[in-house]
Amino acid sequence: MKKTIYTLIVVLIACSSCSHYYYVPNSPNVPVLREKNDMRISAGYSGGETFEGAELQFAYAVAPHVGIMVNGLTGGKTEEDENNQKQSGKGSYGEIGAGYFLPFSPKKLFVFEIYGGAGTGVTNHEYGTYATSKVGVTKLFIQPSISYAAKKGRFEFAMGSRFSSINVKVKDASLVTDGQYDSYATDLEYVREHANSVLWEPSIRISMGSKDVKFYFSYVHSFNLSNSLLPQELYTASMGLRLTLNTGKK
Length: 250
Description:
The chain is mainly beta. It has a single domain, classed as Beta Barrel (Porin). Helix content is about 10%, strand content about 60%. It contains 2 helices and 11 strands; from the N terminus they run H-E-E-E-E-E-E-E-H-E-E-E-E. It has helices spanning about 1-15, 180-195; strands at about 40-45, 50-65, 65-80, 85-105, 110-125, 130-150, 155-175, 195-210, 215-220, 225, 235-245. A 10-stranded antiparallel beta barrel has the order 1-2-3-4-5-6-7-8-9-11. Strand 2 and strand 3 form a beta hairpin. It is elongated, with a radius of gyration of 20 Å. It starts with a helix and ends with a strand. The relative contact order is 0.19. Residues about 1-15 have low confidence and may be disordered.
C-alpha cells in the first residue's frame, strides 16, 4: 500500500512539472492616479507555476478623473519530462484600458479606480521533438480597485478585483494520439470545446520607497468561475520598480 501511494505521488509530481497552461493572468495595473498628468511606469519580473518572465505597465491621467493604461507580459518555461523530452511553453500578451479614478477621504489618502479594457496574446508550445501547438487568447475585463497612499508618498497598498471574459482558441496543433501525446491532445481538444471562460481575479500590491521610485510586490489569483477544468495558470506573482511622476509639473 505504501509503495502504491509513493508511486502515485511520484507520477503526480512528474506530470505537474511538465504541464502546459493556455492562459496566464497578467498582474493587474492599479496605478493610483490622483490628478491630471500623473504618470506611472512599472517594470518587473513575474512568475507562476509554469512560467517566468517580465511585465511592463504604463498609466497616464489624460484629464481629471480619467486615466488610460497599456500593459504587457512575456514569458515562458522550458524543461525536460521523465522521458527526457523537451517541454516548452512561451508566450506574450498585451492589453489597453481606460477608466475613472477618484481620490477620497478628508486628506485624499485613498483612491478608488475602475478600468475596463481588452487584451490579446498567444502561446507557443512544444511537446517533445515533433509535437507543437499555437494557442491564442482574447480578453475583455473590468477592474475596480481601492488603494491607500501614505501622505508623503513612500508607501502604497492596493486591492483589485478584476472580472474577465476570455476566449482561448487553438490556432494550430501537430499532435497525434499515439500514446505519448494523448494527454496533451486531450487538453487541446478540451480547449476547443470550452473556449470561453468567466474569471474572477482578486489581487494585492504593496509599493515602498521614495515618492518617485518604489519597489513593488504584487500577487493575483485567477478563479475560473465557469470552466474550472481549463488548463490555466492559477496565480502570478511579480516584483519590480515603479516610477511616479507628473508631466504637468516643473
